[in-house]
Amino acid sequence: MISSLTATSASTADFLEANANNLIRISADSREALELLAQYSPAFGCTFSQFVPIVDRAQAVIGVGDEYSGINVSMPVVNPRGRYLPNQDEPRFLDDRGPRCYTPADTAAGEFFPQYPAGSANDGSYQVPSRNPGPQDIPELPAPQYSILPGADTGTGQAASASYEGSDFERDTLAVIYGQATGTSPGDVPSWVTSAGAPALRGAEVSFTETATR
User: Fold this and answer.
1) 78: which DSSP letter?
2) Angle at which helices 168-182 and 191-201 pack, to 10 degrees?
3) What is the mean pLDDT of residues 103-117?
4) Residue 184: CA count within 13 A, CB half-sphere
């Protein structure tokens, strides 16, 4: 086993030495894209969760399972933006809004997704008035890279911001406290104990004293 690990380590070292410059270049070139993904990552949960129902809805649209399949859609006509006008409609992607979660429209109740949720896009074109602009005060989600705790998907299409209360980090901390008080390993403390005791200990100051033994 030791000889195998030695050979593997030598091969890995040779690979890193031969490709060091390429790896550094890839990391440097990917930084901007990774920072952009990190900025908008709070919206990934609600975005991907809204992709899941699209499969069933798409099958219903194209008539999967019907004897005479065909496209079945209801297409609302919105206010058109008109033809392109020089010096007015030049594309300029100046929209700098942060990550947001948009509530999907309840199509069963006859709702349509709004045209300008959280405001119209600053893309350089003339934004025509709309009868269904949508809510304009949708808050941005907090940036995760400045928090030690990740956000969570609530299961309703909305993302919950990072919070210490109820997090795995809080439960792990309480497991250490309970373990120290009872002489038990933190890994052996049941999760229900930390979950039940968390509300009572929030805001309380806990201190440990070490007793010297001979």
Assistant:
1) P
2) 100
3) 87
4) 14
The answer to whether 162 and 142 are in contact (CB under 8 A) is: yes
pLDDT in tens, 33-92: 888 888 888 888 888 888 888 888 888 888 888 887 777 777 777 667 777 888 877 888
pLDDT score, position 164: 66
DSSP state of 142: P
pTM score of the predicted model: 0.52
Nearest CA-CA partner of 178 in 192, 163, 164: 192
pLDDT for 20 beyond 50: yes
Q: How many CB atoms lie within 10 A of CB 115?
A: 16
Dist. CA 162–CA 145, nearest whole Å = 11
What are the backbone dihedrals phi and psi of residue 39, each rounded to the nearest 5 degrees, phi first? Answer: -65, -40
Residue whose entry in the numeric block shows the structure tokens 């349509």: 112
Whole-number Å distance between alpha carbons of 39 and 187: 34
141 and 151 Cβ atoms separated by less than 8 Å: yes
Across 111-125, 135-149, 151-165, 200-214, least confident range: 151-165
Cα dihedral: 159, 162, 168, 172 (round 10):
-170
